[in-house]
Write a structure and sequence with these properties.
The chain has 188 residues and is mainly α. It is 62% helix and 0% strand. The protein has nine helices and no strands. Helix 1 runs parallel beside helix 3. 37% of the residues are buried.
């Protein structure tokens, strides 16, 4: 059981209050992740800023959701997979793509699959992508900027996924229908 506090606007440090107020205004609720992050206003502000920057990246809405969900699943984030499933649905990502991402299956769209695979290479290899993988990603129709934009999304997800692991952040009620557990790997 986590001992991390879940802050309200009233209990949060002063430097976090305006960000929490913005979250309530934007989402109509105060997500549990933000309640935890509020203990460190700098972490909360960093997360908000990285989110804003990733939204401005050259990646499309669907592509950003592929990056987020691929990383969340790879990191086994019990909170972010359901949260980003709900976000992907709200942003119009098709159910087949969402299901494949949650189940760690290849995506039907070759370009999105190239993005999923390359994102996972960056996560697993800590940014040390072999040149062949970079070349394959670029051959799928992406530019060098996309590689760097993925890093913005990865930085954002490291902050949230690691926070949720440490704090055991409870899943917010709106995300419960999308609760998720990593599939067990069975030996062949």
């Amino acid at each position: 059981m986590s001992t991390f506090p879940l802050h309200s606007i009233e209990t949060a440090p002063d430097a976090a209050k305006s960000l929490l107020q913005k979250a309530v205004k934007d989402y109509g609720m105060l997500p549990g992740l933000y309640q935890v992050m509020a203990s460190s206003p700098e972490l909360l502000e960093s997360y908000f800023k990285l989110h804003e920057l990733f939204e401005r990246s050259a990646l499309s809405v669907t592509e950003r959701n592929v990056v987020w969900l691929a990383i969340n699943v790879e990191h086994s984030c019990h909170y972010c997979v359901p949260a980003h499933t709900a976000i992907a649905i709200m942003q119009g990502v098709d159910d087949t793509t969402i299901s494949a991402l949650r189940e760690e299956r290849p995506l039907a769209d070759p370009r999105l699959e190239a993005l999923r695979k390359f994102t996972l290479i960056l996560v697993r290899e800590r940014g040390n992508a072999p040149q062949k993988d970079v070349d394959d990603f670029l051959a799928a129709g992406f530019e060098h900027r996309a590689i760097l934009d993925i890093l913005v999304g990865l930085a954002q997800k490291v902050l949230s996924n690691y926070t949720n692991h440490l704090a055991e952040t409870p899943i917010d009620k709106p995300f419960l229908p999308h609760a998720w557990e990593k599939a067990e790997v069975t030996a062949a």
